[in-house]
Structure prediction request, 423 residues.
Amino acid sequence: MIQSGLNRVFIARLAGTPVFDPNGDQVGKVRDVVVTLRANNQPPRVLGLAVEVPPRRRIFVPITRVTAIDNGTVVITGLLNMRRFEQRSTETLVLAEILDQTVKIVQADQNFAANEKVVIEDVAMEMAKTSDWFLEKVHVMKRGTGFRRRGASATVAWSEISGINVAEGNQGTSNLLSTFTNLKAADLAHAIHSLTLKRRAEVARALDDERLADVLQEMDENDRVELLAELDRERAADVIGEMEPDDAADLLREVGKDKAKALLDLMEPEDAEDVARLMKYEDYSAGGMMTTEPIVLTADSTVAEALAFIRQAEIAPGLASQVYVCRQPLETPTGKFVGVVHFQKLLREPPATLLGTIVDKEAVTLQPNADINTVSSMLASYNLLSMPVVDENDRLIGVVTVDDVLDHLLPENWRHKEDIRVK
Prediction:
């Protein structure tokens, strides 16, 4: 997530900008910004940067790895995937493919007439409340009519232009995707299930990695294994890397050991490590069902800080039900597990209260080898939405949520049941 004060970045100015790691060492230069175009003239979503590293090799850096863009520099975090960047059919390069395109103004304003042709000079990306980045603004210019004369120019919203070229072969899929735009991941998974395998594969290739990962998590075993087989291995590895670690581990268990190992080798090292750790446990055990990314804070963190984490839109309800207090390090496996603080307790305490003064140190815990019957009975007995899983050294290694258990208890084809009776 980009942390700098800039909330709008004009992309033409990024060309050639040096890229630094957290230690201040230059790793390369920005050569382009990778986006995915969306249906109904919605602002394209920014996927990442094409960065040139020595010797003249272009790699892809996800936008989620960019921590700052400021003062003519870009700072990134995490390990670099040195695989050569290969543009996919669903991806568009802003500098190479969007700049200098001739487009039309949709509606007349003080600068342009309706349907007037203008040229794109620059594009600005802006961060949304979800922390995703989109191409929201376009700086356009109309051609001058005299020798060496420039026409009028202005910055307009992306929705105010039309005519961006899209590969013709993707039009059918784009039209189909436009009907899916506002669907939740579970509903989109259900809609895809009704398509032919060929059509499913086309939709999967057109979705960005994060959206496809969300959809795969909502599919049953057969559907997602079948769909994953339609992707090339590099793309499949990228998508699995966007999934929740427990869901990714479940999926890799389903594809076979050899293919699972090959996909793990292609994943970002940090993502692969989390998933491989989960795959060591039995599928129907606490260790096999848990997620490795709960909300973990120290005893000297405040109630305000805990609530700030809980209110993040991307945190699942089960994980937002309580925060886990541990000693450093805070990434699983953590330091010594101290206890939990339920979100209702957080709501009743002053914002400056330290978690160490209100933590429940008697919270029940699970061992990673606990079977699903033990896990489900303990969740029910203590009326909990989630429970911590600790190892023999009393370190927090993950959290099991109610939805993790339900996914394993319900029949395999429950997602396709049309009739649900409520008594």
Observations:
- Confidence is low (pLDDT under 50) at residues 145-149, 167-171, 418-423.
- The chain is about 30% helix and 25% strand.
- The first helix runs from residue 94 to 98.
- The chain has three domains: 1-160, 168-280, 296-408.
